[in-house]
Amino acid sequence: MTRGYLIRRLLAIFLVLAIVTFAVFAITTVLPGNAAIMILGEYATPDAVAALERQLNLDQPWYMQYFNWVAGILRGDLGMSLRLSLPVSQVVGEAFLNSALLGATALVAVTVIAIPLGALAALKRGTAVDLAIGLFSYLGTALPEFVTATLLLVFLAAPNSGIFPAGGFVAPWGNIGGFAYHVALPAFTLGLILLAHISRQVRSEMAEVLSSDYIRAARLKGLTERRVIRRHALPNSLAPAVAVISLDIGYLLGGIIVVEEIFAWPGLGRLLMYALENRDLPVIQAVTLLLAGVYALSNLISDIVIAMLDPRVRYA
Amino acid sequence: MRDFFSSPTAVVGTTLLVIVLTAALFGPWIAPYDPQAFHPIARLQGPSAAHWLGTDQFGRDLLSRILHGAPATVAFGVFATALGVGVGSVIGVIAGVSGGWVDSTIMRILDGLLAVPDLLFTLLIVTMLGGGMEHALLAVAVAFTPGMARIARSAVLSVRTRDYVRAAIARGESGFYIVSCEVLPNALSPIVVEATIRVSFAIMIGATLGFLGLGAQPPSTEWGLMVAEARQFMFRNPWCVAIPGLSIAMAALGFNLFGDALRDALDPRRSH
Amino acid sequence: MTPSLNPAVTETTKPALAIRNYSLSYRTANGIVAALKNIDLTIGKGQTVGLVGESGSGKSSMAWSIMRYLPPNAVEDGGAIRLAGEEILDYTPRQMADIRGRRMAMVFQDPSTSLNPTIRLGEQIGEVLMRHRGLTKVEAMQEAEAALARTGITRPKEMLQRYPHEASGGEKQRVVIATAFACEPELIIFDEPTTALDILTARQILDLFNQLREETNVSALYISHDLGLVSRVVDEVSVLHKGGIVESGRVDDVFRRPKADYTRQLIGAVPNPDRWIGIDAPANPDPLISLETIGVHYNAPTMLQKIFQPKEAEKAGFWGAKNVSMEVRKGELLGVVGESGSGKSTIAKVLAGLQDFDGKLQFDGKTFGSRKDIDRAYRRRVQLVFQHPDASLNPRQTIGTIIGRPLKLYGIVPADKVATRVAELLEMVRLPADYARRHPHQLSGGEKQRVAIARAFAAEPDLVICDEVTAALDVSVQAAVAELLVKLQKETGTACVFITHDLNLIRQLAHRIAVMHHGALVDFFDGPDARADDRDPYTKALLDAVPVHADMEAFDVA
Amino acid sequence: QSATPKPGGILKISHSTRIATLNVLNCSGPAEYPVVDMIYSGLTRMGPDNKPMADLAERWEASADAKTFTYFLRKGITFHDGSPCTADDIVATFQAILNPDVPAAARAVLNMIDTIEAVDATTVRFNLKTPFADLPISTAHANARILSKAALSGPREKLDTTANGTGPFKLETYDSARMVRLVKNENYYIKGKPYLDGVEMHLFPDLAAESANFLNGAMDVMLTVQQADFERITAANGITAKRIPSGRFVNVTMRQDQKPFDDVRVRKALAMSVDRGLLVDIVLEGLGRPAYDNLVSPEFQYAIEAPEIAYDPEGAKKLLAEAGYPDGIKVTLVASNRPAIRAQVAVALKEMAKPAGFDIEVETMSHDTYLANVWMKGNFYMGYWGMQATEDATFKLLLTSDASYEDTAWKNAEFDKLIADARSTTDSEKRRELYAKAQELQLKDTPYIVPIFEDILTASGKGAEDWTIAPLSRYYYVENVWLNKA
Ligand SMILES: Nc1ncnc2c1ncn2[C@@H]1O[C@H](COP(=O)(O)OP(=O)(O)OP(=O)(O)O)[C@@H](O)[C@H]1O
Ligand SMILES: Nc1ncnc2c1ncn2[C@@H]1O[C@H](COP(=O)(O)OP(=O)(O)OP(=O)(O)O)[C@@H](O)[C@H]1O
Ligand SMILES: [Mg+2]
Ligand SMILES: [Mg+2]
Ligand code: NI
């Protein structure tokens, strides 16, 4: 992993982001309707729409809008949200923070649970434990988030059995308990699919590692089973798991859209849906930019982690 | 084949798949009622002799709706995947076979597209096209294309350096023969396996779009939409949410299990 | 060297290992398969016993039984395995874990897979010491360094910090051996420890083993299918055939006066350089194909790189072959030998038109300056057989299709005669005609290799290049394949380039021998002159490394 | 009602749509209205009885010809920032509303104003171009609340996120993604009110999550209850669920300058193919009333009772045949997917009209596409309108030739004249007559099918007293709400 490599990767990310934003801009401008119509809704009169369009600069040709937008970005100004009349950086920034809290909680929890679970399944291959974990994983991957979330709402958060709040957001600063209480269900919903995915990956990788010659060699050296598993088997099964996790972050970024909607989590996913519905172009742009950027960056980080986990992997 | 069915995964997966595909192919004919017909006196009922799976808010028969929705839901997954896999594979094979700058150009573009998460990508395309089933299908297909192209390319690459391909090159075979007779048949299995598993993703994404109001639209009987429509009534009649929800899970599970079993069965390490 | 290792201290009352009437079988989909039958085997203190037998005879199963590390589907059918008199069959897994690595250790065939790729070599040696001798990390590292030093590694301290992929095959095997010897065990099992190494390295490892054995007076079970090699290191030998020991005794006795037919057969399959099996040298030494200053630059720098980063471009890539000139005569068999990575396959690929090259290729009056010039006619007349039969046959085609393809492609016979010709070809390589309908996976390795050869000869070529065609095969099968090749050469008069690292084998077959080293042609001589004094030092080293027991050379089965 | 109000406490209101803007001039979201209603006051305001009541204006006078109106303001009203609210602010506000460069939703009901003048600090005079008796109702328009002159002359975007009103509550935090918090305005013009220390508006985009949070007591008020949930919520312990009959309706737009709806018989046939009672049952869960194509619901002062239209597919079929469609008609009915009621009615209509020979294909699309491509353009689609303040506003919205959303191309000079005459008439009986005639004209021609009137549903939890909504919606009277918590 050389510096040159890192720089090249980062440059590639910028290029990708540039392409993505241009594509999104082009896409959104061919859409019927615009923010002004959406803001005023059915109760607006044509002259009010025209007035608002002028106010929002929507009467300019799209390439001018894009040009202005890019010029703004280069000055560090993401513009104003058309629908919310707030600086995009503020709207998106807050939402991103909230989403990151949710996503990170889900990811960390999932990683912490999924890896041992997958390892356990591999160790107990063919037993009831393996079967149970397998069934759970399969079910996890087959239930779409909106179904899981709905079921959770009915069974765990319904007012009658209200173990958990039915959505809502509490910031963790100074109220970590409240945060944990509110984040539990959405994080679980998000995590379920990833849990299944990662634990299955770890299981198959671990199973392969366990049948490898060097594990056999380690056991024949008389090492304790603990050491064989922790020092020899686990680290070697992790690199592929990390690759999967980074891919799953992409999935997570999609998953938040549904989960945030259902659990009233004020994050990027919901903001994006809202912005799409309202043709709030600057917000759509910023959110896509951010999501794509996060995804690309997480891929880069995962490559770095993999290189750290596995000394054979070298990027130049 | 006997080997294939010796794994429980394969048996369960195939069984689920048969059920789901039967529903998808013959559902509309075996449905006891017109899926749109109202039965105002029997609204929001649980399972009964007259309505085996109960009814929804208009008193429409859920079993009939599920059966009618099967083609929409499953065919959506299958066609979206087929389209994405087809186009993706062609791109991937072209990249893998030609190598050089063609390969690297294609790969750079794919990398760019892959940088956008699947659902986000789909969402953007769907909103661009304005929602609806066909547009959602197209969007899922487009979203699948880069990933599939990658898989196809790597399958081709791994086959391309095999000795039997090199033997064909050394014999002086034409490029067409090499690709169609030596490379493709052997590169196909990872593509098929991935495609099978992706059908389940496609079904889930399709249902999610239906749920978000960007996919199928009323009065369609697509399952995701059915869940969305029934959610308001979930406390009054949990069946009308659970049934389509579980149907989606069943279809996704079926394809998932089947794909996994297929992967195991086709895994060269296992077959030796 | 610690005092306890002094041979005087060891007693010789009880054998280090005694196996009595031991049987083992595996449960498989096709029922129970017996792997070991009524085995009796004794290894005395300080003694080394060899275990030989063809692939699948049960050698590794024996090793696993002793180490008490059997797969879940193994079924033991009684008997006794005693380590210094203690019945280890009754040991709990815990007790076994305690004695593994401490009282008995094992060295595997492939050092590159038996070392954990993500752990530094030092830790992999040290962990045994920490586990069994209760050393601290620092002590363990010092001890590991000493152990490595004993195996002849020049800079042991540095080696401790490396990862497996940063060490060569020989170095890795030394690490494994150092690990095995680390706790001064009573018994070490070697399961084909040199098979995966190239010939020179294997020789060094063998010497190392002999040296350490003398120093430590350890008892050892040495497993190999290579009789020549075993005869070099062991005192006694047991011959295993289909799970049963057919013969055992002092190594000289067994090899000189084999009692069992199977032993005789095994010995017969060992290539003997003095027993010529090739065809007579062709009468007219006209060149068929000649290579002129052939060079192959792998990962060559691109044009852009040359312009913008001239310094780095110079270092970029790797010369797989450089400045190689030689010619192949009509009808002859040219042997190409050299250690692993010396560029043998590179030359084969150039000849087969699979590799871009610098320099010139002359064939039948035509000159080819680059790979792209090579035409269909050339490709028909030069055929290639690969090392791995598994990989060179398309798993999705039938044998008939595979062999029939060149017939159709080059229009060798009319379309309606293809099937007949395929049958003839199968017969030529001594396979039943009905194999045409089978798929490759229904054939054994040797059979697959015959199919590959049949496919090459189907084109009626002038030259067949055989790239280590016997390397992946069992000893006995190796000999048969080599003989088949000779037979075909005799029948068709085709010239052959035979690539191998087995010098004994090549000396039985080749009219002329080319020796390659680090991509260069270092020696080129007539077969009988192999032992001549003016040979290149590298050639001499290769010849010396060949593991043939002095006694065996005198032995002749015929 | 039973107990005397206690001051103090924070009222938590849950809602399911975003409060995207606080700009009272053009806000339109269902959750935006309660917020502006709490922050801002109007010159007048609509009461729960659907009559204009005093707000900043203590009283008003109209000239005999209904062309000049004089409003007299309360004394000593101040904005939340402490600055006084005078006639100048009133004038500035209405001038802004009338300014074509300003997006203002209330312009349509106030465009008869010619000039506004500040007579003195507490007196404002409106001079109208044409007589208009209902001006006090128009000045009560929810988007015609009084802004300060300073705010109006500042950058207009600031109105979206900040607010300086004269209402009972002041803006404290505005987080459109989550929560808007308001605090008591100590200087509200009614002494002792509001009772509450503050109000929080919490956003729950998912309806199930919203009801769950309301039912488990995390929220005090559920702004809008879904029909499907009403029964369950009513049944819950301590919950006061309110059902307020309203003139909110769903309508089927049929363009009359295009086939097949150019023929009144086709429209009538479709009208006969709707089982309105059943529609109320299955779409509204019984929480509404059947409507018989009259845009004006019984709540209106001058509403006539429209004759019942029985569900008669046979008759409809005959009528269709007469109109030249013996084999039925194939049409595509477009519905936006938001709110769900549009698609539900469309789907139900499809089934109900089937026996009559209408082969209706329902095409549901996302709201944005609908707004851009179908609304005001299509020839057969679902509309959905909230109750307007007056008959005049209703007709001027949809039916007169110069209506703001004249989307059926139904033009009737006689109708236009009746509406114009009613405008300038101050005599109540006369107006009743004029409006009755207008309604009959409309019913005769069936420009729209209006199958149902929807009730407004809201609920308050244990301890939240005197919560109510006007049938017009958009008016909430939160200054009267108080918390009766132990
Ligand atoms: N786990 C197992 N299950 C079933 N059969 C097995 C298993 N392991 C080995 N065998 C069979 O037992 C026989 C002996 O195998 P073993 O590995 O001991 O042979 P070997 O002499 O070491 O061969 P090689 O020289 O190829 O290493 C073979 O026929 C093999 O197929
Ligand atoms: N495609 C390639 N790209 C880069 N380097 C290569 C490539 N193929 C071979 N090499 C390198 O070129 C050298 C010569 O390789 P070659 O395969 O000719 O050796 P060989 O003599 O056939 O060895 P072996 O006995 O192991 O088959 C080796 O060091 C190898 O690593
Ligand atoms: Mg073995
Ligand atoms: Mg080679
Ligand atoms: Ni060398």
Largest protein-protein interface: A-D, 53 and 49 residues
- Roughly what percent helix of chain A? over 70%
Oligomer: heterotetramer
Helix content of chain C: 25-40%
Arithmetic mean pLDDT of chain A:
81
| Class by SSE composition of chain A | mainly alpha
3D shape of chain A: globular
Q: Please list the strands of the largest sheet of chain C in the order they lie side by side.
A: 7-8-9-3-10-11
Instruction: Indicate the CATH architecture of the largest domain in chain C.
Output: 3-Layer(aba) Sandwich
Largest sheet of chain C: 6 strands, mixed
Gap between N and C termini of chain C: 48 Å
User: How confident is the prediction overall: mean pLDDT of chain C?
Assistant: 86
Q: List the total number of helices of chain C.
A: 23
CATH classification class of the domain at 90-309 in chain A: Mainly Alpha
- How many E-type strands of chain C? 21
CATH fold name of the largest domain in chain C: Rossmann fold
CATH topology call of the domain at 90-309 in chain A: MetI-like fold
Order of helices and strands of chain A: HHHHHHHHHHHH
Subcellular location (chain B): Cell membrane
Transmembrane segments (chain B): 12-31, 74-97, 109-129, 135-152, 195-216, 236-259
Family (chain B): Belongs to the binding-protein-dependent transport system permease family.
Protein name (chain B): Peptide/nickel transport system permease protein
Question: What can you see in these coordinates?
Answer:
- The complex is a heterotetramer of chains A (316), B (272), C (558) and D (486).
- Chain A has 316 residues and is mainly α.
- Helices cover 77% and strands 0% of the residues of chain A.
- Chain A has twelve helices and no strands.
- Chain A has helices spanning 3-30, 35-40, 46-55, 62-74, 88-123, 128-142, 145-156, 176-210, 213-220, 225-263, 268-278, 281-309.
- The longest helix of chain A has 39 residues, at 225-263.
- The mean pLDDT of chain A is 81.
- The two termini of chain B are 15 Å apart.
- In chain B, helix 1 (8-30) crosses helix 2 (62-98), helix 2 (62-98) packs antiparallel against helix 3 and helix 4 packs across helix 5 (133-160).
- By secondary structure, chain B is mostly helical.
- With 558 residues, chain C is an alpha/beta fold.
- Chain C has three domains: 1-103 and 185-268, 3-Layer(aba) Sandwich (Rossmann fold), CATH 3.40.50.300; 110-184, no CATH class; 287-391 and 461-552, P-loop containing nucleotide triphosphate hydrolases (Rossmann fold, 3-Layer(aba) Sandwich).
- In chain C, the strands form four sheets. Chain C has a six-stranded mixed β-sheet with strand order 7-8-9-3-10-11, with helices on both faces. A six-stranded mixed β-sheet of chain C has the order 17-18-19-14-20-21, with helices on both faces. In chain C, strands 1, 2, 4, 5 and 6 form a five-stranded antiparallel β-sheet that branches.
- Residues 1-12 and 549-558 of chain C have low confidence and may be disordered.
- Chain D is an alpha+beta fold.
- In chain D, 29% of the residues lie in helices and 24% in strands.
- Chain D contains 16 helices and 19 strands.
- Chains in contact: A-B, A-C, A-D, B-C, B-D.
- Chains A and D meet through helix 2, helix 3, helix 5, helix 7 and helix 10 of A and helix 7 and helix 13 of D.
- The complex binds adenosine-5'-triphosphate (2 copies), magnesium ion (2 copies) and nickel (II) ion (NI).
- One magnesium ion is lined by residues 344-345, 467-468 of chain C.
- Chain A: InterPro entries: BPD_transp_1_N, MetI-like, MetI-like_sf.
- Chain A: This is Peptide/nickel transport system permease protein.
- Chain A: It is a multi-pass membrane protein.
